[in-house]
TrEMBL record:
<keyword id="KW-0378">Hydrolase</keyword>
<protein>
    <recommendedName>
        <fullName>Probable DNA 3'-5' helicase RecG</fullName>
    </recommendedName>
</protein>
<keyword id="KW-0547">Nucleotide-binding</keyword>
<feature type="domain" description="Helicase C-terminal">
    <location>
        <begin position="500"/>
        <end position="669"/>
    </location>
</feature>
<dbReference type="GO" id="GO:0003677">
    <property type="term" value="F:DNA binding"/>
</dbReference>
<keyword id="KW-0227">DNA damage</keyword>
<dbReference type="GO" id="GO:0016787">
    <property type="term" value="F:hydrolase activity"/>
</dbReference>
<dbReference type="InterPro" id="IPR012340">
    <property type="entry name" value="NA-bd_OB-fold"/>
</dbReference>
<dbReference type="Pfam" id="PF19833">
    <property type="entry name" value="RecG_dom3_C"/>
</dbReference>
<dbReference type="InterPro" id="IPR014001">
    <property type="entry name" value="Helicase_ATP-bd"/>
</dbReference>
<dbReference type="Pfam" id="PF00271">
    <property type="entry name" value="Helicase_C"/>
</dbReference>
<dbReference type="InterPro" id="IPR047112">
    <property type="entry name" value="RecG/Mfd"/>
</dbReference>
<dbReference type="GO" id="GO:0006281">
    <property type="term" value="P:DNA repair"/>
</dbReference>
<dbReference type="Pfam" id="PF17191">
    <property type="entry name" value="RecG_wedge"/>
</dbReference>
<dbReference type="InterPro" id="IPR033454">
    <property type="entry name" value="RecG_wedge"/>
</dbReference>
<dbReference type="InterPro" id="IPR011545">
    <property type="entry name" value="DEAD/DEAH_box_helicase_dom"/>
</dbReference>
<dbReference type="Pfam" id="PF00270">
    <property type="entry name" value="DEAD"/>
</dbReference>
């Protein structure tokens, strides 16, 4: 084959399936080439041989049935935008005894279902059986419309592939396009990314056979074999990309920052009123050794809220300062940056007030730089950074400004890494004379395999112990759809905490009547029956309206309620947090600006309104704000979702455990396909199609070993051109950079 010709996978779709269909696939699904469509794999398969009569369907189990649509109605949600489509189906059999079974189907914002499931149409439905108002139902079931035309017996036995579809391009349309493609596929132009030796060792299908069996399996077992082959391919492509970048990183040079006996770090350790946990001490030794090397440290430090990550990071900063360098801490919000500034300044004491009258003569200086500072304050902070007067510079995105320079930047610490893009972090890393060392912190626990898959060349350290004084947190779901009277009980419960001398957080997904606070997930739900007058006046609970409402609630009469959100004047934000810290505010009504870094030991209750708007990791982070002062913490997850709504499962998962790693795994199981590397994080189309970082742990480890061996043998992959091309096709530059640094 002429290597100058484009491979079969790069061939334009319109040349194979016609311009009209190709245009629709590109417009609605972003599929442009033969490879795009071939890698648009079925989400699942429906088997005709395992159908369940409606009269025999079991409760709380997954079922597949062929049925005919009897009615199709839609209604608008009362408290939310959107609609609910209610479909009634009957058995697709002859009504010999006059007792056809009936089943109710519910689709939240089911625009496709409203249009496609017309009365009299026949389809295969699949989903989990639930119950609502005494009737069995399927909520958001998957379905495939069935052709009324007769098909031959062999074809009738084939599993039906169900593809990720769009409103204008249904799954059957995609299936027909794929079939047309497979029938005209020029297999001699296919280049297999998997080296033959690996394919033989793992007994994997060849590329042509794998495409046929994943899209047109004779039986489901064939599809599983093909999926396994493509999972290995994905794992090898990802891990080879990472191995290649790790090899390049290993060639970078950094300024060694060895520990200095008797320096700031030793004096700081001597001043600590407590002993480091064994985990903090062990990770501290790891960081110290890497900082002393002449290649840049690239490490991820993860640990639960309150596990002492900031202390570990501060000790690393002090070692760099002892060696003549500076450290920059990048925080995602001004509230968190200010918290870090205050907590680090307090931990250092006189050691952090170098050059001041009450400071240690040999101490360093801690400087805060944020976008909202006045001109004089910002100019002074920038001078501290540029002159080297400040050893520790803490800031938000303002640190990334081209006007900010450093005397000798030796360490970059990034807090809550998921809030920053790769480009933003890299801007800060280019401000050193040589490549600075990098420490990334996260309080969102990440399963080991996910870290290995997503974080690439970052070595991972995990703090598993909680320091003494942390109390357990009890979490409960408060479902107002079934129990509207619980709303007043929530505020009575808040009053009980206040009367006991404690304080309360109330978290809302919105600031005002029209603005969403960034970072919350969109969930669709209905306020059944309109039981809450206030819910009917607004789509989601907002800080401004709830603050006003709580001043009228009898249970909170005479108590101080104050708002906090990202659009307040910085001085007002600071004053509000300071007042809450002092205990002058009883109830703080806030957006997620308090998600990380805020530490008020006296706060013992958190009420999260419209909790279904937030993801699992965010809910886990939020509730970590209570139970920090030795007092037991309580978190109430308030929701108006109807029973059976898919998002209720998220809330039940958070209420069931406080184990962050277990929740992280659950989060991955509940997310839709490919979200680990979704567009919102990487800037490009999702790369994970079949690979599952949690379930495919053994496969990923094997592929990682293969990738390391391949790159060691052939760093430029000159002997593996198809694998090199697959890396380019699977990973756009943004996604590959995201993989490298998480």
């Amino acid at each position: 084959m002429d290597s100058r010709l484009p491979g079969e996978l790069e061939f334009p779709l319109d040349r194979r399936i016609g311009k009209t269909t190709a245009k629709a696939l590109e417009k609605h699904l972003g599929l442009k080439t033969v490879g795009d469509l071939l890698h648009h794999f079925p989400r699942r398969y429906l088997e005709r041989g395992e159908l369940t009569p409606i009269a025999e369907i079991p409760f709380d189990e997954d079922v597949t049935l062929i049925a005919r649509v009897q009615s199709n109605n839609r209604r608008q949600m009362r408290a939310r935008k959107g609609m609910i489509v209610e479909v009634v189906v009957t058995d697709d059999t002859d009504d010999t005894d006059g007792s056809l079974g009936q089943l109710h189907l519910t689709f939240f914002n089911g625009f496709n279902a409203a249009k496609e499931l017309v009365v009299g149409s026949r389809a295969m439905f699949s989903g989990k059986v639930g119950a609502y108002k005494g009737q069995l139902q399927l909520t958001n079931p998957s379905y495939v419309l069935l052709d009324e035309d007769a098909v031959d017996e062999e074809e009738a036995k084939r599993p039906i592939p169900v593809y990720p579809a769009a409103a204008k391009v249904a799954s059957p349309t995609i299936a027909k396009s794929v079939a047309m493609l497979l029938d005209t596929l020029q297999t001699e132009r296919l280049r297999d990314p998997l080296p033959e030796s690996i394919r033989d060792r793992e007994r994997l299908l060849g590329l042509t056979e794998a495409y046929e069996q994943i899209h047109r399996p004779a039986e489901v077992a064939d599809a599983y074999k093909a999926r396994h082959r493509f999972r290995y391919q994905e794992a090898l492509v990802l891990q080879t990309a990472l191995a290649r970048r790790r090899a390049l990183t290993a060639q970078e040079e950094a300024t060694a920052r060895p520990a200095v006996p008797g320096g700031l770090l030793d004096r700081f350790d001597q001043s600590l009123p407590f002993t480091l946990t064994s985990g903090q001490a062990e990770i501290g030794r790891e960081l110290s050794a890497e900082l002393a090397g002449d290649h840049p440290m690239n490490r991820l430090l993860q640990g639960e809220v309150g596990s002492g990550k900031t202390l570990v990071a501060l000790r690393a900063m002090l070692q760099v300062i002892d060696a003549g360098g500076q450290a920059a801490l990048l925080a995602p919000t001004e509230v968190l940056a200010a918290q870090h500034y205050e907590s680090i300044s307090a931990m250092l004491g006189p050691l952090g007030r170098g050059g001041q009258l009450d400071g240690d003569p040999d101490g360093t200086r801690v400087t805060l730089l944020t976008g909202s500072m006045n001109t004089a304050g910002r100019r002074a902070a920038m001078l501290d950074a540029a002159s080297g007067a400040a050893g520790i510079i803490i800031g938000t995105h303002a640190l990334l400004s081209e006007h900010v320079s450093f005397a000798d930047l030796g360490l970059v610490v990034v807090d809550e890494q998921h809030r920053f893009g790769v480009e933003q972090r890299d801007v800060l890393r280019t401000k050193g004379h040589s490549t600075p060392h990098l420490l990334v912190m996260t309080a969102t626990p990440i399963p080991r395999t996910v870290a290995m898959t997503v974080f690439g060349d970052l070595e991972v350290s995990t703090l598993t112990e909680l320091p003494a004084g942390r109390a357990p947190i009890s979490t409960f779901v408060a479902p107002l759809a079934e129990n509207p009277q619980w709303e007043q009980r929530i505020w009575a419960r808040a009053r009980e905490e206040i009367d006991a001398g404690r304080q309360v957080y109330v978290v809302c997904p919105k600031i005002g009547a029209r603005e969403d606070e960034s970072g919350s997930d969109v969930a669709l739900f209905d306020d059944d029956g309109g039981t809450r007058e206030r819910a009917q006046r607004q789509e989601l609970t907002s800080v401004t309206e709830l603050t006003e409402y709580l001043t009228t609630v009898p249970a909170l009469d005479g108590k101080v309620v104050a708002p906090l959100h990202g659009r307040l004047d910085p001085a007002d934000k600071h004053e509000t947090m300071t007042a809450f810290n002092r205990g002058d505010i009883d109830v703080l009504v806030s957006t997620t600006v308090i998600e990380v870094g805020v530490d008020v030991p006296n706060a013992s209750l958190m009420v999260i309104m419209d909790a279904d708007r937030f993801g699992i990791s965010q809910l886990h982070q939020l509730r970590g704000r209570v139970g920090r002062g030795g007092l037991p913490g309580t978190c109430l997850l308030v929701t108006q979702l109807e029973p059976g709504h898919p998002s209720r499962e998220r809330l039940e998962a958070v209420a069931a455990t406080t184990d962050g790693f277990e929740l992280s795994r659950k989060d991955l199981e509940l997310r839709r396909e490919g979200d680990i590397l979704g567009a919102s994080q990487s800037g490009g189309r999702s790369t994970l199609k079949l690979l599952r970082a949690v379930q495919d742990e053994a496969l990923i480890e094997k592929a990682r070993a293969d990738a390391v061996a391949l790159v060691a043998e052939d760093p430029d992959l000159r002997g593996y051109p198809a694998l090199d091309e697959a890396i380019e096709a699977y990973l756009n530059p943004e996604a590959e950079a995201f993989l490298e640094r998480g």
